[in-house]
Amino acid sequence: MFKNYLKIALRNLLRYKIYSFINIFGLAIGMACFLLIVFYIQFERSYDDFHENSKNIYKLVRVNTLGEQMERRVNTGAPLAPLLTQNFPGIKQAVRFTCFQMGLIGYGDKRFIERRFFFADETVFNVFTFPLLKGDSDTALKEPFSVVLTEKTAQKYFGEEDPLNKILVYNFYGNRFDFKVTGVAASIPRNSHLDFDFLASYRSLRPIVGEWFLTKHWDSPTHTYILLSEGYDPGELESQLPDFTEKHVDKWSFTSISHELMPLKNLYFQSPGPAIGRRGNSQFLFVLSVISVFILLIACINFMNLSTSRSGSRAKEIGMRKVIGAQKPQLVRQFIGESLICSFIALFLAAFLVEFFLPAFSSFVGEELHIDYLTDFKYLITMLLTAILVGIVSGSYPALFLSSFRPAPVLKGEFRGGGSAVLVRKALVVGQFAISIILIAGSILIIKQMNFVKNRDMGFSKNHLITMPIRERAVRSRYELLKDRWLQSPDILGVTATSMLPGVGSPNGINISAREVDDLQMTIIYVDHDYVKTLEVPLARGRDFSKEIATDATEALLINEAALERFGWEQGLGEQVEMYFKREGKIDPQYQARIIGILPNFNFRDLTVSMQSMLFKIDPTHFHHILIRINGNRVSESIDYVKKVWQEFQFDYPFEFTFLEDEMDNVYRRFQNFSSITRYGTFWAILIACLGLFGLASFTVEKRTKEIGIRKVLGASVPRIMRLINMEFFFLVALANVIAWPVAYYAMVRYLRYFAYRTSIGIWIF
Amino acid sequence: MAGALALLVAVLTVSYQAVKAALADPVDSLKYE
């Protein structure tokens, strides 16, 4: 019996080649898209699960409250970890990572700027699973000035030499420290959110940054992880943390500080800023999964529609089977079996498509995805389940429909493809196109928002600005000399330095009091005299900093219009303000300054964040970036000149630069990913939907061949007949529009919420 | 625009079949009777 079913199924597939091709190829594309995305999601969800203790590792999140504002940050003070282990016996071990995101490492002639140089407690190898290939993990990070490298880093510095006991020179702001290599760690798995190149012993920090770093509870670039004893309830620990924090941790200028725990497995997606290492994007994954389900759904609908529309050709077979004694459940099984055959053939094709598109897809999502079917059954199981699910979902409706034919009329030749099936078919086509339209509209909006953000006037001229980080003290102390030397060339239109790049970073806050206002917190940006000129920000009122007026260097302040509004002043010019930090409950005065000018609200942060009140003050000790405006017609010559001057000064750090525009674009990269993924998704969805429509149209035409013939004989023209055929589908797609628009509108509004500056949802998009 | 695009693509797809049907010689399709 089974053999007969199989024979009939294959015979039918081969007899109707176009239908079979549309069915199977459509399903294969749908499955391939779906599988690629599912594999990617599986990978993303596997982050950090390779640590043996992964279930019991938590990260401390610090909650800073200032008035009404609450901010969660993963930065903690360095003394937190030892305090926690002393006070809570349930904490088995704690480990700190401190990373300054810069450092120049040298071995012989080789010198590289390293951003992933972490200082870590010796407990790191007990808490996390980072096996050492060379060296002893119990002692590797015990001594001050010992360092563990990853395999790749060791290769980079030492080539084939044995790295153990070699000395690396670590240059921190111009001071040199010798580190002895005590271990080589195996390559860090791709699905680890921590991605260090170097782990240096924590005991080395004291001589490098000083005692205060280790004893003050400031917002330092230190990340604290704890390992709880098996069975210890993290909730209980968390409930004790507020009291503990109140007792031990200094509040600085915040209203209050508290700590929370975040499980290791949530860190990749939910870690607050400023994250260490890799950070996932759950919204991106959500959009991906929605698109993948949509595509698969469209492919399944094709399958259903083509099966029921072809029912006429199977009607006699079903009638015969019933007359001979087949029961309905048997027929249902037969047809589901047939659709399973199709879906497995499709799976086979999909596997090839997945293999083919995997490299492109990997580089697209920025991960290296490998599918190893033989060692990792996860993939095989996912594929089999997908095929079975697709087979059953798309086979069940046709099976029920076909098996319910009444044998007598069918065999008498009175069969007319059932009215209910036609209605369902039409509804499904409407559904397919509604989905496609939602995707098209969504893609258009995403592209529109992207362009809006990119072309929006930031309030300063961002073209031809290059930036260089200041990584050593010598650069800061010789900045004025460097600047004068640069400005000797006519290609260099302006040079300035600042604490924070405009349009990229999040600046520091400072407390302020002034006439009638007390204790406001605003953002302070440290700049030099030529900041406004170099960025080409048009001054709203007042005057710019001036070299002629000596007091400007210490007592002058520029503010933006948002700040003026927060002060509540009409004019603001000439007002005296005091700026201070609060430390350990005491006021630590910083500057007294007079407002000399008002700047318009130019965008300091990226456009997902709304305007902040900002102060600009001259203070060379806080410079972290140099900004140079170069001649746009002689870009490469200008950069060569900038580089030449840098090298004349013989700094420790090699010359490195970026265009400010590129830095700003980086901030928008994840939105760009959204944009391209929806575009590709939309393309495939429409392709599959059209494949189905093509099949249905060919079925309609076939059924109405005679009707068309008679119409033609009676004098109908070709355009008339085309209109006749087209009308049937035109109405369905039009109806799909009406359904899709509100849904698309809702999705658009949701998407735009991520931005502080939004493009309009124009009617034309629909 | 999204709606128009979808309609356009749908009409183009269906038109292929429609043109084929409309251009077919009625003699062929009615011959049987």
Written description of the protein model:
Chain A is α+β, with helices and mostly antiparallel strands. Chain A is 49% helix and 20% strand. Chain A is built from 25 helices and 24 strands. In chain A, a hairpin with a 2-residue loop joins strand 1 and strand 2 (69-73). The longest helix of chain A is centred in the middle third of the chain and has 38 residues, at 328-365. Chain B is 82% helix and 0% strand. The longest helix of chain B is centred in the middle third of the chain and has 22 residues, at 2-23. Chain B is mainly α and 33 residues long. Chain B has helices at residues 2-23, 26-30. Chain B is rod-shaped, with a radius of gyration of 15 Å. The A-B interface holds A 433, 436-437, 440-441, 444, 686, 690, 693-694, 697-698, 700-701, 704-706, 708-710, 712-713, 718-719, 721-722, 724-726, 729-730, 733-734, 736-737, 740-741, 744, 764-766 and B 1-3, 5-7, 9-11, 13-24, 26-30.
The count of DSSP E runs of length 2 or more, i.e. the number of strands of chain A, is 24
Radius of gyration of chain B: 15 Å
Low-confidence stretches of chain A: none
Uncertain spans of chain B, ≥5 residues at pLDDT below 50?
Answer: none
Radius of gyration of chain A: 34 Å
SS strand fraction of chain A: 15-25%
User: If interface size is counted as residues with C-beta under 8 Å from the partner's C-beta, which chains form the largest one?
Assistant: A-B, 41 and 26 residues
Helix proportion of chain B:
over 70%
How is the main sheet of chain A built?
13 strands, mixed
Order of helices and strands of chain B: HH
Number of strand elements of chain B:
0
Beta-strand content of chain B: under 5%
Structural class of chain A: alpha+beta
Task: From the structure above, extract its key features.
heterodimer; A: 766 residues; alpha+beta; 13-stranded mixed sheet; six-stranded mixed β-barrel; 24 strands; globular; B: 33 residues; mainly alpha; 2 helices; 82% helix; 0% strand
